[in-house]
């Protein structure tokens, strides 16, 4: 069995309300600019508990991010900006020493 183990957990997108077509009611859609951090925290906790049960100690939890950009047009020219979104976390663990 391996001495080290790495697990990646993926964050879902935060939901936001948007008006339906023709303004009749609202619907929940994924917000492309925000991760669901509460869901990510639950996934990290579940993964860490599983690793512990398998006999591993957690060494580190590192966020993984993805970069994005957006551009648009205004009356006098264009604009653009970049941003990053947390898309998950990498959990590294080491097998517990047995006495």
What's the topology here?
Elements: E1 4-10, E2 13-19, E3 26-35, H1 37-53, E4 56-74, E5 77-95
Antiparallel strand pairs: 1-5, 2-3, 4-5
Description:
The chain is an alpha+beta fold and 99 residues long. Helix content is 17%, strand content 63%. The protein is built from one helix and five strands. The protein has one helix at 37-53, and strands spanning 4-10, 13-19, 26-35, 56-74, 77-95. The chain has a three-stranded antiparallel beta sheet with strand order 1-5-4, with helices on one face. A two-stranded antiparallel ribbon has the order 2-3. A hairpin with a 2-residue loop joins strand 4 and strand 5. The longest helix is centred in the middle third of the chain and has 17 residues, at 37-53. The two termini are 17 Å apart. The mean pLDDT is 86.
Short description:
By secondary structure, this protein is an alpha+beta fold. It has one helix at 37-53, and strands at residues 4-10, 13-19, 26-35, 56-74, 77-95.
